[in-house]
Design goal:
Shape: globular
Oligomer: single chain
Strand order of the largest sheet: 1-2-5-6-7-8-9-10
CATH superfamily: Metal-dependent hydrolases
Structural class: alpha/beta
Distance between the termini: 6 Å
Strand content: 15-25%
Number of strands: 10
Order of helices and strands: EHHHEEEHEHEHHEHEHEHEHH
Number of helices: 12
CATH class: Alpha Beta
């Protein structure tokens, strides 16, 4: 079984140096910003048995923090290990639509990721809507963060209800992947994943040993086909995220879906499992 990491990024220095990551550096006890070579990222995947990673660009009001073309260069270097995830600007939605088309049609990317807290705009803001429509037309997934925000910016945009629920109601064909479990609103995101066929959750930014009890119960039962493994690398390595996996009590089938099968379906990765 090839484990698939649904939420990671290979960071650039300008990404790591953003002031809103000061809180994460304190938690990691880092006084300086290290350079992370791509070989170190692949080595971290190897150490945990991760075969493929959905690695994302980052675009915020301050511009490109990890550009789509940089992500494309990472994928070209390790085409059997990395899959590109686009990011675009919300400031001019039609330019964003055209950039998304380029990323999917020319660069082979499989999803779009927008981080709402970076923009201070909840996902039901009108500026996202042309991008949702284009994701449906291109048949790619839309990824976003839900739950509280570790970086020093607002958490309000991460509330699943009503913001993400409005999107799922208005775009029933859109495949949505909500990252970071959704705490402290975990029951809200569980309820949305139960309610909407095309809404999924990934566990990025959480070790398996720290999953809320109700979330682990969801994974063991009706949510077995709804939850994807993710790390939020480099914040956490895959090895750290997999700590405590046996304690979740997943059946062999549920564990295979969590680590591989659900990602194959959400991102349409034929043969990857």
């Amino acid at each position: 079984m090839r484990i698939i990491d649904a939420w990671m990024q290979h960071p650039t220095r300008r990404f790591l140096e953003q002031p809103f990551f000061d809180s994460l550096r304190r938690w990691a006890r880092q006084d300086s910003v290290p350079d992370i070579p791509l070989s170190l990222t692949i080595g971290s995947m190897d150490q945990a048995g991760v075969g493929m990673g959905l690695t994302a660009a980052w675009w915020g009001p301050q511009g490109e923090l990890i550009s789509n073309d940089e992500v494309a260069s990472f994928v070209r270097e390790f085409p059997d290990r990395l899959i590109g995830v686009a990011s675009v600007s919300l400031a001019k939605p039609m330019e964003g639509v055209r950039e998304l088309r380029r990323c999917v049609r020319q660069l082979g990317f499989r999803a779009l990721r927008i981080v709402p807290w970076l923009w201070g705009l909840p996902p039901d803001d009108r500026r996202y809507y042309p991008l949702y429509a284009e994701c449906v037309e291109l048949d790619v997934s839309f990824c976003l963060q839900v739950g509280h925000t570790g970086p020093l910016l607002t958490s309000e945009t991460g509330r699943p209800i009503p913001y993400l629920e409005n999107v799922a109601l208005e775009f029933p064909e859109l495949r949505i992947l909500a990252g970071h479990i959704g705490a402290p609103w975990t029951q809200e995101i569980i309820s949305l994943a139960t309610k909407f066929p095309n809404l999924y959750i990934d566990t990025s930014a959480y070790k398996a040993s720290r999953f809320p009890a109700d979330f682990a119960e969801f994974m063991r039962g009706r949510g077995s086909r709804k939850v994807l493994f993710g790390t939020n690398y480099p914040m956490l390595t895959a090895s750290a995220c997999l700590e405590g996996l046996p304690s979740l009590g997943l059946s062999p089938d549920a564990q295979q879906l969590f680590l591989t099968g659900n990602a194959c379906r959400v991102f349409k990765l034929e043969g990857a499992g």
